[in-house]
From TrEMBL:
One of the record's GO molecular function terms: ATP binding
Protein name per the record: DNA 3'-5' helicase
Biased composition, class Basic and acidic residues, residue ranges: 563-576
Family: Belongs to the helicase family. UvrD subfamily.
Source species of the chain: Streptosporangium canum
UniProt keyword annotations, A-Z: ATP-binding, Helicase, Hydrolase, Isomerase, Nucleotide-binding
Annotated EC: 5.6.2.4
Binding site for ATP: A29, G30, A31, G32, T33, G34, K35, T36
Amino acid sequence: MEPDDVLAGLDPEQREVAQAVRGPVCVLAGAGTGKTRAITHRIAHAVRSGVVDAQSVLAVTFTTRAAGELRQRLRQLGTPGVQARTFHAAALRQLTYFWPRVIGGDPPRVIESKLPLLIDACRSIRKNPDRSELRDIASEIEWAKVTQVGPEDYAEAARKAGRTPPVPAEEVFRLYDAYETLRRDRHLVDFETILELTAAVMTEHREVAAQIRQQYRYFVVDEYQDVNPLQKLLLDTWLGGRDDLCVVGDPNQTIYSFTGATPRYLTGFSVEHPAAAVIKLVRDYRSTPQVVSLANRVLDKARTPHKLALIAQRPDGPEPVFAEYDDEPAEAEGVARAVKKLADGGVPTREIAVLFRVNAQSEVYEQAFAKAGVPYLLRGADRFFERPEVRQAVVLLRGAARSAADDDELAPTVHHILAGIGLTPEAPGGGKAREKWESLKALADLAEDLAAEGGDLPAFVAELERRASEQHAPPVEGVTLASLHAAKGLEWDAVFLVGVTDGMLPIIYAETPDQIEEERRLLYVGITRARAHLALSWALARSPGGRRSRRPSRFLDGLTGRPAERSRASSPAPKDRRAVAAPVSCRICAKTLVAAAEQKLGRCAGCPADYDEALLERLKAWRTGVAKETKVPTYVIFTDVTLQAIAERAPTSEQDLLAITGIGRVKLDRYGEAVFALCRAAQDQTEDA
């Protein structure tokens, strides 16, 4: 692959990123704009151009899966030697390598959870908190450590940061201090200590710093808006004053400030590096214009909006739906019905997600989906490759791979093995049996995909082991239930944002202006997870018969098609879903239109309307030609009803065309001139006649 070959298929802004092979470079990349594509092509272009050796590149991400995706894409681009790791994985590798030389003895053991050590710390100070309280205390300790605050300084630092500790600050200090003492005494390190020790070893041992800096000369950091002070310290230590650094991030997706993450390193990059190239990616390839428009309008109302408005690149899709319910069970049942309708219409359930602000909201949706017979999976409940049935399957497959004959067919062999532990031709009704079946079915589907590519059983087992190490689970059939925070970085064809009320989004304990704005960004992240179908809903009461005192989120003010404050006293709220949309009246008899086709035509189906039949035929012929040229179905350009509406109104100006329901700025820009030309020609023929 030649250097210029790497640039093929990139849009102008992505190409600019790929060609900026020397740092410092700051890429401000909006949701769905292809940032991973841009930075992997930048690395590949730099390697192919001879700017840097692949082994000298360190690409840093925040999740194991993201690192795995980077490595996979770089392999496809012919640059397999690039190191792509999380901050913690890169630091642990270096710390483990140098520990025997500069410290001596065995490296410390890594703990993945603070809870066991915290339980012992509680015993040492005679405290007996419950498990949920312990998790909150662990989060406080993590915040303190990433912001470089020691136990003795915690109380003052927490007060200045406006934090509300789960227990009195003095107790957090005592537990934090006891936790650190036990950790050191037992020769353990947590994730924060790994970063801290790696930076310290490099600072105190020049030969270590020199060797690491000799190895890594070219740095790329993804999701830079989520970097915390401790990660920034380690990054600066790695760089050692050099500036061959490319950072990528989106200030509009800053949603982890409570963990110590801060966007100021991203937004202030050009101040820290005055010579930096700053490139914006704003072409959204993920979502329809309707979804993108709503996302932009949510941010337009921000207190200090960041100028990174998205520009949709996909064809038009359905308008977002806003729905109001009497109570939470009614909302969950309504969402379950809507999900079932989408699934029946051909949208796979694995491409549908229900997103909420806090995990406690999931229970009512689990019940509703179980009742409706809709499969679902709760994201964050457990990791796919840690499920008992998956572990058992991998063990059996690994054993079979060792004794596999050359002529064994992959898919039938895997199906036979999985059938022995519960994979049946038809899915069980629900519950745990359905969850187990879905896991095994996902493995079987993955085997069929690999078999189609010519893979065998050993290759399949190797693929499973790679995916397990990268936490890259195969798609499991079922609707995803997840918190908005857990959904970041993911996308689905259809997204339901539920519980969008004041007090939940923004959450009730978000009090300061900065906290409120972070909640707004959280809604933005949720909206931009949707490719095509998007619904936002809220319930007026928690329980059936309860006081209906809730209000839609303030972030929706002016966006739902009705005034922000609605009077509900004049008529009772319906039991079922009520879509919120601006009314459309018939332009002939003034009757309110209900049917979507009538709304698009702008008249009742029975009301008379004159139109030029020849114009309609020419519009259809033009549409067919464009569809063939662009290789898309004709309805993607304009539906039959839309063409009839155009023929009836014969628009000759932008204002006239935009007045037709369903035609937005994107279609105006793409097809407006052609439509106007056809309409003017028809008008000229009429006048000549």
